[in-house]
Amino acid sequence: MSEVPTPPSSPSGAASTPLSKLDPGTSAAAMAAMTDGIWLLDAQGRVIHSNGRLERTLGVDEPPDVERCGLRESFHGDYPRGCLFHEMVRSGKVTEGEFRHEPSGRWLRITCYPIHGDGGELLGATHVARDISDTVQIEAMHDLLEATVDQSPDVVLISSVDLRIVYVNSAFERLVGRGRDEMLGRRAWDMLEIFSGDNGMNQVNSVLRNREPFHGLLTVTRADGRQVHLGGSVLPLKDSTGTLSHLVCIGRDLTQQEELERRVQHLAYFDALTDLPNRTLFMDRLTPAMARAEHSSRVCALVVLNLDNFKAINHALGTAAGDDVLRAIAASLLASVRDGDTVARLGGDDFGLALLDMKWPEDVSGVLDKIQQALNKPIALAGTDLEITASMGIALCPSDGTLPSDVLEKATLAMADAKREGPGTIRYYSAEMGSRLEKFMATSARLRKALERGEFRAYYQPYYDITTGDLAGMEALIRWQTEDRGLVPPHEFISVLEETGMVVPAGLWMIDTVCRQVVEWQRQGRPVAPVAVNLSPVQFRTAHLLDDIRRIITDTDVDPRLLTFEVTESTFIEDPEYTRSILTALRALGARISIDDFGTGYSSLAYLKRFPVDHLKIDQSFVRDIIEDVDDATLVSTIITMAHNLGIRTIAEGVETAEHLRILRILRCDIAQGYFFTPPVPPDREDKLFGPR
Ligand code: C2E
Ligand code: MG
Ligand code: MG
């Protein structure tokens, strides 16, 4: 505003300007009577008089600077941006513009009229400013409402009371397949009708007559003649005087709704990854199929299939590749069964197959062969050919049961049994499996009590340096002291502890017990060598394992260099990165790491290179046959040589005879453990543990 030329304080000040030819007194009186804001400008565009109207509306003291930047202007038509006055001077014509005044936010329409002298020379100009804020607001609201209706996903049609179309929105155009211009003015009911039990026209008339809205089904006839059903309303629209002016029809395409519902339904019953039926749908389909099998002489087989080592694939190649594997498996399973059979994804890498209407139980094995052949084909993935195997459990209806949940449970039990047997195994459910389940339940209940009552014991088995004969270490082995069955060896309960998760507290108890024993032996001045504790893969998967071990070490004040942790190869395979981090941390504490039962699992020496490993324990199955079986001897020799190349010492398990020991010495094995020296003994058998051997 500072740049605005200061207007003279009174019209009389203008007497010396060229405007003196006008009669300012008359002008002022006329201007004061106007409702619009009026300014009189001289030939240079300076305001020499204002009637003060606009200043009052805008709440300012001086006339707003319409010629500078105080107002944003938007010229109508092709007028270039610029100030009104100069535009008027340039064109010699009346100019007009719409402006928004800041900060009042009001809109002004300002017209600039030139004032010419008798000789045609420009004497000045009159600016007439009108406050058009209300109109602008109404227009903006109108634009907003129109955009809302036009962009609404619902179809909207407005007709006059004589049922001619006056408006359709874009959704309506798309639905009908006609342009708006084509439809305006046409009879509304040519395209849209009320669909009801009664004559649709009667319904329209009733809306017109009673001025009550109709809610229900509407039918639209598309340009291609097809009819689409809508759910919607026909509303009587009244104007401000209450007179019925229009009919508004609003509707939503029900086929879209149906599609949406179908998709929601699909998600509830199908697996998103493979698009196979999920467990819920699988069970739903089993019910009638099993009822049919029960009442006919047909057989229905339920197969539960679990991929072998799927976790390893996921870890090695990433979960995206894992997903690809699952999809590929889904496809080959589908290709292996007949129409009418169901293949479902039960969750994770578990699949369920319902093979229906088989004539004989033997027919099932034909299908299983086909499935195995399909699975045997390598899957091309990430540049490699992956060979996948699966374990399968089968239960039959009606012989194993007729209740879907019961038969599925039995097939799952059979699968778990197959899994224990090793990759690629197929197992049919048998009653004996059922009794095993009962036994499992009974054992787990007893083990829970054993944990509470402290019925576990730690036994120790020493091992010796083959060259020097010195004590090289010991292994702590768990035992269960029962009242009725005496001392129970671990192979009878370790798997139950693992499957129930009880191996976690039991394993911690072992570590704690061993640490205290080591401290006690040291206190007694025994020549203590590192004691090895077995860690179950299940224990390994618990997030707090490391914290627990650290806590036990602190609590018992044991020297961690006197501890060794034995892990099996399966622990490595499950999650190599995680395993490496834990092993590295254990090593950092000062403990040693042994790989147990080497040779029975994946036996990947490549793995060993990547892990911090001190000892490798050659599984006793190889040691046992080392005398008779040349292959075993060669294998053991190879393992020892390769381990040495990696700087890893070897321990032979299950050394039972002097002959075993002799051969192992020739093969340059470092350490021996076995009944030849002593079986595992309780800690008080110090003669066995520390005595001369
Ligand atoms: P492992 O860790 O491979 O332990 C060696 C097994 O071989 C022990 O069986 C031991 O008694 C046995 N053994 C030792 N020398 C000979 C021999 O000369 N001939 C024969 N035939 N066997 C011999 P054990 O104590 O029955 O333990 C079996 C398995 O149970 C262990 O195999 C280990 O995998 C597991 N286990 C034992 N204690 C624990 C534990 O505290 N925690 C965990 N997670 N597993 C344990
Ligand atoms: Mg062991
Ligand atoms: Mg072992």
Task: Describe the protein's architecture and organization.
This protein has 693 residues and is an alpha+beta fold. Helix content is 42%, strand content 26%. The longest helix has 23 residues, at 431-453. β5 (106-116) and β6 form a beta hairpin. It is built from 26 helices and 28 strands. The strands form 5 sheets. An 8-stranded mixed barrel has the order 20-21-23-24-25-26-27-28. It has 4 domains: 2-137, Beta-Lactamase (2-Layer Sandwich), CATH 3.30.450; 152-253, Beta-Lactamase, CATH 3.30.450.20; 261-433, 2-Layer Sandwich (Alpha-Beta Plaits), CATH 3.30.70.270; 447-690, Alpha-Beta Barrel (TIM Barrel), CATH 3.20.20. The structure holds ligand C2E and magnesium ion (2 copies). One magnesium ion binds at residues 596-597, 617, 653.
Could you name the key traits of this structure?
693 residues; alpha+beta; Beta-Lactamase; Alpha-Beta Plaits; 6-stranded antiparallel sheet; 28 strands; disordered N terminus; binds ligand C2E; binds magnesium ion
- The whole-number mean of residue pLDDT values reads 86
The CATH class name of the largest domain reads Alpha Beta
What would the principal axes of the Cα set say about the shape? elongated
**Strand order within the widest sheet?**
20-21-23-24-25-26-27-28
Q: How many helices in DSSP terms?
A: 26
Ligands, deduplicated:
ligand C2E, magnesium ion
Q: Architecture of the largest domain in CATH?
A: Alpha-Beta Barrel
Span of the ends, CA to CA? 109 Å
Biggest beta sheet attributes: 8 strands, mixed, barrel
Please state the CA-atom Rg, rounded to the nearest Å.
46 Å
- Contiguous low-pLDDT stretches (5 residues minimum) are 1-20, 68-82
- What is the total number of structural domains? 4
What is the percent of helical residues? Answer: 40-55%
Strand content: 25-35%
Would you identify the CATH H-level superfamily of the largest domain?
EAL domain
Instruction: Tell how many strands the DSSP assignment holds.
Output: 28
